[in-house]
From TrEMBL:
Domain of life: Eukaryota
Predominant location: cytoplasm
Subunit structure as annotated in this protein's UniProt entry: Homodimer.
Recorded metabolic or biological pathway in which this protein acts: Metabolic intermediate biosynthesis; chorismate biosynthesis; chorismate from D-erythrose 4-phosphate and phosphoenolpyruvate: step 4/7; Metabolic intermediate biosynthesis; chorismate biosynthesis; chorismate from D-erythrose 4-phosphate and phosphoenolpyruvate: step 5/7; Metabolic intermediate biosynthesis; chorismate biosynthesis; chorismate from D-erythrose 4-phosphate and phosphoenolpyruvate: step 2/7; Metabolic intermediate biosynthesis; chorismate biosynthesis; chorismate from D-erythrose 4-phosphate and phosphoenolpyruvate: step 3/7
Organism: Collybiopsis luxurians FD-317 M1
Name assigned to this protein: Pentafunctional AROM polypeptide
Domain 3-dehydroquinate synthase N-terminal: 83-194
Sorted UniProt keywords: Amino-acid biosynthesis, Aromatic amino acid biosynthesis, ATP-binding, Cytoplasm, Kinase, Lyase, Metal-binding, Multifunctional enzyme, NADP, Nucleotide-binding, Oxidoreductase, Transferase, Zinc
InterPro entries given in the database record: Aldolase_TIM, Aminoacid_DH-like_N_sf, DHQ_synth_AroB, DHQS/DOIS_N, DHQS_C, DHquinase_I, Enolpyruvate_Tfrase_dom, Enolpyruvate_Tfrase_sf
Residues bound to NAD(+): 47-49, 88-91, 119-121, 124, 144-145, 166, 195
Span of domain Shikimate dehydrogenase substrate binding N-terminal: 1310-1391
Location in or out of the cell: Cytoplasm
Homology family: In the N-terminal section; belongs to the sugar phosphate cyclases superfamily. Dehydroquinate synthase family. In the N-terminal section; belongs to the dehydroquinate synthase family.
Amino acids binding 7-phospho-2-dehydro-3-deoxy-D-arabino-heptonate: 135, 151, 157, 167, 199-202, 259, 273-277, 280, 296, 365
Length: 1595
């Protein structure tokens, strides 16, 4: 096709018109290349995405053109094409080599011309190939994305990426031509178009202010230009080119022209060309972390805003310019901060840290050595220098930081004189008035903030007005729409963030919309962020509905989002409840002139809130030409809450100057007050429309400041530092927003300040009253909440706590109020610094640059994972809770388990004061007692701060001083445990208890009052289900074989202190571990069968999301119920819907509350979804103690693959946070399981790798569950449902492992003689079968330890053996090692093969003592054996003594027929164990308490009772059982008969004595053997039933 048939715009670069721009250029491109670049071969390289749109057309054009060429004496040129994979991963060394191999394979020579058809990846990669192939060949750029058209294709920069960063290896290699075919953008996704517009905006921002103005005002038109496909090559010639096409082409040409000009001056990037890197220094660093999910232009967009903020911070760029840049980028659907949901919701976003960004920025072509250089704007359209500017890391860090700290001191610019930003209230009203008005209005001093941005954007979407900027953005020109408004396009919602003013004003504005035939949508939808959806709008909607407007709530009643039909506003009489917000009133007033009828607005529902703001609205309406009349009472002239608004149209004044914001002015004025310096605020004085302008006179002056005020200016001089006075009462109803500032000052004022009239502040951006109370508490400041305010008890500055981290609730007022306090309190951290962008975006810069207080950035880093240190583990534990909850009893048990000392504070009080608590209260009163109690607590924490359990009285939390002590103890690593018991049981107990003074009020009322204090002061919660009786006498049945309270107390306190954390021993490398996922809505149903359900597993997962009730009380009771029946570690999981569970996705706060509850309950493992907010995760990690975090990802869609970059990113995030990493994907093919294993092996091969759970869901993923060695989740056939698709049982996993060779069958034996009737095969084979293990246990009966045993233990499939008489000693020479127990007993009953440095080692052990210990411990708690008797002196007696000593028996008596044998045994244990020989059975001296444990080790056949005395038989006297004062146990180790003489005697003579047979000991020691051999707990219930069945059948 001839060049003349296509109209192109040519742009010169480096002296050549080589950039050709137009539409539908493919024929033109082919013609130009063939006629101007002769070659033997033309190679077109593209990616598979572009090939499907354009490759065929190129092939056809080349074939047609080449076929028409005459061959002559030369061969006809070839045309080749090569397709590569799309995406950044192709832009690598490997990708470059693949193209080079293709060229070489096809014998391409140096005269080859290469065409790069594609986006930036293709252009950069192919350009670098061209630069190096045959030392350089010619090439052409044919960019297909807007980004490539305006950026990467222009300038000759070519490169590939490396793991260290983007574009680090490359060359400058200029293309022969750059063909810009704008028609190719018609197939470009809108996101990719926005991606390119980032570079267009960048170019205008650094070079062309006029072009920026156009981009700013014409975003909708520019978007529309690519949304209508051209037909029949329209646009190829000028005469067929539409207006939209001309606009699009002009935007592209304008942007390219700037870059071409810069490149021509500086082709190799020595200085000026740096400028096109505006936004790229930080943007590239962000991209390095987020690629490929987030696009280049999106990252550069964020980089531009951050680099603009950096310039503002340095005093170079105005906030107006930052605001304009931000708004312009937003207009093209680009993210402007890392908190944008598109970024924040990505797993990779958690890897963006300041340290990492700064590290990546070290490798940047603009840098000079270690000096970072960044392009800084000075204004829109110009840069600070004609090159990148050096910027220190500290400034970059401060800009990137999400939190800040203010360095306390005297403001260096004292006396300060400044202007605050424009009033938010006036700015928003002015925008609505001017937009609805007729004519053009220039708004001066408009607030550039989030709130005004969303208001302008919404009014633009409604087509209510047109906006443009003048004076470099200092003036907003509003072309009013005369009240004409349109429904936004279908699917377009008005998103208002957390802008409450905009939400309320626009609700009424949207009722003015009139239906049009051109409307795509039926309604206008207003929505906001999560907090905005909680803020009330009900009274306004109710009033508008009553007036005929059709408004629907789309989610929660009374809150956004709203759907509003375009029916216009009817008018007439409107009644409105105005006791919640004056903004409702202003909303109706502003829109009233455009109603169909004049409006009479009557305010009802009590006291009208914030009347000055209503007056402000009326005054502004008057300025815009509408006079509102407020009615007055006849006779008295008293003003009524009734307003008459006429119909009309606002007439825009030519110019309207917006007052500075009076609420914002309170912060610099307060800093002057608190630091004893002077501050003058201009443009705010006594003539102000704003109620907050009264703050200086009515608050600061009363607090001791000198105030002078003119009509337009306010000056405050603070008193000497520390001398602010408290104000008895301040009614701040007319300046409610300023109460936060007053509260911050009151914290350091001398005395108590009472602030009232601010009830509406509970429904602002947050509950501000609660927020101030909670955050002031971090400084040690006490407050009292009132119905309509609060009281603040001031403290001297030096007494306030330092280093507080203030949560700002995404509320600008909270952040700025606490910055006042931070100016005098060292180390105060203000989180969420960006929330100030709502009203004063550059507050932190102004605080430093205009007031003179240094502000530093702070990164709230995730704490490194670590369990409690041993030094901290011994810090005393404090118990609190209501009287009657069993604190002292629990304390005694805890102290016993920890081997600490328990102190009952009431008993200690009596010791210290020589008077009982009841009498002390009667004589001195409650206040004196509380003071004494608090002082006692302080002494206890100081003097008994380690190795004590301190049980406090129930009322200790009644005073703030005591609460502060407890909270301080927790903050320093101590544990305060709230002991909880059913309140009905407490009430019953206290009804008869008489040792303490009466409450004087209902117990339930006391409980309600104290409950929040107990929660506030405690770090943990112990739920006590013990039956308690009057006077603290608590009875537990010691013979109860269920898991007792003692065992749970021991587990709980061992775990929370970290002394002996209850974690799974199998969670180590080389071992397999499993957990059972409980899927019951109520776990109570599972308790009777829990032993069977949990057979083989190492932990139990409580799926809290599947419980029928998610309240904290219900969940805590569920955990407590499980604790009563199992000691297995628990895993606490709150799985969200998005990750395959049932918990609401957006209920992050509720999920985190439950996870924190789990830590408080001492749950061992907490499953934390990495999608939860970073701050919440950080808090969990910070307080986890000995519990462990399972950092989890669950990907249900099947989109993510194990070999994807996202998988690597997810692992990095989880590994950084958790003790255990869990990643669960969905398998669709068997290959997914192999990929899973490959990924897991790679991660597990890292140094210090954390335990890693890597599995696939679905039936296709079951193999991954089998192969995963770490905490594989399993189900059980008895459960109602499986927790996830593809989940299988523990037994199924073991069988599968065996089938694939991962679990070889082992052979186990019993060595001894005679053993034919042994019960051991029944025991172990039952257990193997129940757990699905492929092993066998059989008898090997031999008279001696000979070759048969030697050969057996040498076999590779030997799994272990039990050893009985007569081989317990003779087996020892064949073994490699003995355990301490085997050495102590001098005999072996168990052989355990173990691996040691890849060599098998045979270890000899003895579990006889464990069998004896288990049988006794099931009935009598550790430490409660005051004395014990062992009958016999053989090897089993040795085991009995060893067991009794481990149970804490204070004295052990030994009787044996042969005295010398007894002596030998006693001597072998001395001096470690106190064993005493008794000469005659059943005779106890007066100073000896008869034993409460008896163990007989002699054959029953050699014993008898006194009633049937037989020669040579041992006769048992009834006096053996002389102990009758409590629980006792007699254990006869003989198997036969079923009832031995000793056990029979116990039953006949002693009702308090329990009996245990030898079979029980066999079972207990067998359980221990089984666990040593397999690493799995033996399923005791079903195994014991089988063994007893066989035993009884034989008996």
């Amino acid at each position: 096709m001839a060049a003349t048939s296509t109209d192109v715009r040519r742009i010169s670069i480096l002296g050549k018109d080589s950039i050709h721009c137009g539409f539908h250029l493919i024929p033109y491109i082919v013609h130009t290349v063939l006629t101007q670049l002769s070659a033997s071969t033309y190679v077109l390289i593209t990616d598979s995405n572009i090939a499907k749109f354009h490759l065929t057309t190129f092939e056809n054009e080349f074939d047609s053109a080449l076929s028409s060429l005459s061959n002559g004496t030369h061969a006809r040129p070839r045309f080749l094409s090569h397709i590569i994979s799309p995406g950044e991963l192709s832009k690598s060394r490997e990708g470059k080599a693949a193209i080079e191999d293709f060229l070489l394979l096809n014998k391409c020579t140096r005269d080859t011309v290469i065409l790069a058809l594609g986006g930036g990846v293709v252009g950069d990669l192919v350009g670098f190939v061209a630069a190096t192939f045959m030392r350089g060949v010619r090439f052409c750029q044919i960019p297909t994305s807007l980004l490539a058209m305006v950026d990467s294709s222009v300038g000759g920069k070519t490169a590939i990426d490396t793991p260290r960063g983007k574009n680090l290896i490359g060359a400058f290699w200029q293309p022969e031509f750059i063909f810009i075919d704008a028609a190719m953008l018609e197939t470009l996704p809108s996101r990719e178009f926005s991606n390119g517009m980032a570079e267009v905006v960048k170019t205008a921002a650094i070079w062309d202010a006029a072009e920026f103005d156009s981009l700013e005002s014409r975003s909708a038109e520019i978007f529309a230009a690519i949304q209508t496909p051209s037909v029949n090559h329209a646009g190829r010639s000028k005469k067929t080119r539409s207006q939209a096409q001309e606009l699009l082409l002009s935007v592209i040409v304008g942007s390219i022209s700037v870059k071409s000009h810069i490149v021509t001056i500086d082709p190799t990037e020595k200085g000026l060309r740096n400028l096109v890197n505006f936004g790229h220094s930080i943007g590239h660093a962000i991209e390095a972390v987020l690629t490929p999910t987030i696009l280049h232009g999106e990252c550069v967009s964020i980089g531009m805003v951050l680099e603009a903020e950096l310039s503002r911070q340095m005093g170079i760029l105005s906030q107006v310019s930052v605001g304009r840049l931000t708004r312009c980028l937003k207009a093209y659907n680009l993210p402007v901060s890392l908190s944008d949901p598109r970024i924040a919701n990505l797993p990779a976003s958690k890897l963006i840290t300041i340290e990492r960004i700064l590290d990546i920025m070290k490798v940047d072509k603009k840098n000079r050595g270690t000096e970072k250089r960044i392009v800084l704007l000075s204004r829109i359209g110009a840069t600070h220098e004609q090159q990148a500017t050096p910027v220190p890391d500290a400034l970059i860090s401060k800009t990137l930081s999400e939190s800040v700290t203010v360095v306390p001191g005297r403001p260096s610019f004292n006396p300060v004189k400044m202007t605050t930003p424009g009033s938010k209230s006036i700015s928003n009203r002015a925008l609505v008035l001017a937009a609805l008005g007729t004519g053009t209005c220039r708004l001066k001093n408009l607030l550039h903030s989030d709130d005004t941005q969303v208001m302008m954007a919404a009014l633009s979407e409604l087509k209510g007005a047109k906006f443009e900027w003048e004076d470099g953005g200092e003036t907003l020109v509003v072309h009013g729409g005369q009240g004409s408004l349109s429904v936004p396009p279908k699917g377009k919602e008005l998103y208002l963030g957390n802008a409450g003013t905009a939400a309320r004003f626009l609700t009424s504005v949207c009722t003015l919309v009139q239906k049009s035939p051109n409307d795509e949508a039926d309604t206008t939808v207003i929505t906001g962020n999560a907090r905005m959806k909680q803020r009330p709008i009900g009274p306004l909607v109710t009033a508008l509905r009553a007036n005929g407007s059709e408004i629907d709530y789309l989610e929660s009643e009374g809150c956004l989002p709203l759907s509003i039909r375009p029916n216009g506003l009817k008018g007439g009489n409107i009644q409105l409840a105005a006791s919640v917000s004056s903004q409702y009133v202003s909303s109706v007033l502003l829109c009233a002139p455009y109603a169909n009828e004049p409006i009479t607005l009557e305010l009802i529902g009590g006291q009208v809130i914030s009347q000055p703001y209503i007056d402000m609205t009326i005054a502004m309406m008057k300025t815009f030409g509408i006079q509102v009349a407020r009615r007055a009472e006849e006779g008295t002239g008293k003003l009524l809450d009734i307003y008459d608004i006429p119909k009309g149209s606002y007439q825009n004044p030519a110019e309207y100057s917006i007052e500075s914001d009076a609420s914002s002015a309170t912060y610099p004025l307060a800093i002057a007050a608190i630091t004893g310096t002077s501050c003058t605020i201009q443009n705010i004085g006594s003539a102000s429309l704003q109620g907050d302008a009264r703050f200086a006179r009515e608050v600061l002056e009363r607090m001791g400041c000198q105030v002078s005020q003119t009509a337009t200016e306010t000056t405050v001089q603070g008193p000497p530092m520390g001398q602010l006075k408290a104000v008895e009462e301040i009614d701040m109803e007319v300046m409610t927003d300023a109460f936060l500032t007053a509260t911050a000052l009151a914290a350091v004022a001398n005395g108590k300040t009472r602030i009232i009239g601010i009830a509406n502040q509970r429904v602002k951006e947050c509950n501000r009253i609660r927020a101030m109370i909670d955050e002031l508490a971090k400084f040690g400041v006490s407050t009292i909440e009132l119905d309509d305010g609060l009281e603040i008890i001031g403290k001297p500055i030096e007494e306030l706590k330092k280093g507080a981290s203030v949560h700002c609730y995404d509320d600008h007022r909270v952040a700025m109020a606490f910055s006042v306090l931070a100016s005098i309190i060292t180390g105060t951290i203000l989180e969420e610094k960006r929330c100030v962008e709502k009203t004063w975006p550059n507050w932190w810069d102004d605080l430093q640059n205009k007031i003179g207080l240094e502000v530093k950035g702070v990164e709230l880093a995730t704490p490194s994972v670590s369990v409690s240190s041993t030094s901290d583990a011994h810090k005393s534990v404090v118990l609190i809770g209501m009287r009657g909850t069993g604190k002292t009893f629990i304390g005694d048990l805890a102290a016993s388990a920890l081997h600490w000392t328990c102190i009952d504070a009431d008993v200690h009080f009596e010791t210290v004061h020589s008077i009982g608590v009841r009498q002390f209260v009667q004589e001195h009163g409650w206040p004196a007692f509380r003071d004494a109690e608090t002082n006692l607590l302080k002494d206890l924490l100081t003097q008994r701060g380690h190795n004590h359990v301190i049980s406090l009285g129930g009322g200790i939390v009644e005073t703030s001083a005591a609460r502060d002590l407890l909270k301080d103890w927790v903050s320093k690593g101590g544990r305060v445990v709230h002991v909880v018991r059913n309140i009905d049981e407490v009430v019953e107990y206290l009804g008869v208890e008489g040792s303490r003074p009466a409450y004087g009020e209902p117990i339930t009322e006391v409980f309600k009052r104290r409950a929040p204090w107990f929660a506030e002061c405690s770090s943990h919660r112990f739920i006590n289900h013990v039956e308690a009786f009057a006077d603290g006498k608590i009875v537990i049945d010691p013979t109860d074989t269920k898991r007792g309270v003692r065992e749970e107390v021991a587990r709980f306190f061992d775990h929370i202190t970290g002394i002996s954390a209850n974690l799974s021993p199998n969670l180590t490398s080389g071992r397999r571990s499993y957990f059972l996922s409980l899927t019951y809505p109520d776990v109570m149903v599972a308790l009777p069968k829990l032993e069977e359900l949990s057979a083989g597993v190492d932990a139990l997962e409580v799926r809290v999301d599947l419980l029928r009730d998610h309240s904290e009380g219900y969940v805590a009771d569920q955990i407590a119920a499980l604790r009563r029946v199992t000691s297995l570690p628990l895993i606490f999981t709150v799985r969200s819907v998005a990750e395959g569970g049932a918990f609401p996705d957006n209920a992050h706060k509720e999920a985190l509350q439950l996870l924190n509850l789990a830590l408080g309950l001492g749950v061992e493992y907490i499953d934390v979804e990495m999608r939860l907010p970073e701050q919440g995760i950080r808090q969990l990690v910070g307080r986890k103690g000995a519990s462990q975090i399972i950092a989890s990802w669950h990907e249900w869609t099947g989109r993510l693959k194990w070999n994807s970059p996202e998988a690597q990113t997810m692992y990095e995030i989880a590994s950084r946070t958790g003790d255990i990493v869990k990643m669960v994907f969905t398998a669709s093919t068997m290959q997914d399981n192999f990929d899973c294993q490959t990924f897991a092996a790679k991660m597990n091969g890292r140094p210090n790798a954390k335990p890693f759970i890597a599995i696939n869901m679905g039936a296709s993923g079951q193999l991954s569950r089998v192969l995963n060695p770490t905490f594989s989740p399993v189900s059980h056939p008895l459960q109602p449902t499986r927790a996830a698709p593809g989940q299988i049982s523990f037994a199924q996993v073991q069988k599968a492992l065996h089938l694939i060779g991962e679990l070889p069958a082992k052979k186990f034996y019993l060595f001894g003689s005679p053993i034919a009737h042994s019960l051991s095969p029944t025991l172990h084979n039952s257990a193997f079968e129940l757990l699905g293990l492929p092993h066998t246990y059989s008898l090997l009966e031999t008279s001696d330890v000979g070759s048969e045993i030697e050969n057996t233990i040498s076999e590779p499939d030997f799994g272990g053996a039990s050893v009985t008489i007569p081989h317990k000693l003779n087996i020892i020479p064949l073994l490699d090692q003995l355990t301490p127990a085997a050495k102590a007993m001098g005999a072996v009953n168990t052989i355990v093969p173990m691996d040691s440095n890849s060599k098998r080692v045979l270890v000899g052990d003895n579990t006889d003592w464990l069998g004896i210990r288990g049988s006794i411990a099931a009935r009598i708690a550790v430490g409660h054996i005051h004395s014990a008797l062992v009958i016999g002196a053989g090897g089993t007696s040795r085991a009995a003594i060893y067991a009794l000593h481990s149970l804490g028996a204070k004295v052990i008596y030994l009787w044996n027929r042969t005295h010398s044998r007894a002596e030998e045994l006693v001597t072998s244990f001395r001096p470690d164990i106190d064993v005493r020989i008794v000469d005659k059975l059943g005779e106890w001296s007066e100073d000896v308490v008869a034993p409460n444990v008896i163990v007989s080790t002699i054959p029953a056949s050699e014993t008898c009772l006194e009633s049937s005395s037989e020669p040579e038989h041992l006769v048992y006297p009834a006096s053996l059982f002389a102990y009758t004062s409590g629980p006792a146990i007699v254990l006869d180790l003989a198997y036969k008969p079923v009832e031995t003489p000793l056990l029979k005697l116990a039953k006949l003579t002693a009702s308090n004595w329990d009996t245990a047979q030898g079979v029980e000991v066999l079972l207990q020691q067998g359980y221990a053997q089984f666990e040593k051999w397999t690493g799995r707990r033996c399923p005791q219930g079903p195994v014991s039933r089988n063994v007893w069945k066989v035993y009884n059948s034989r008996a």
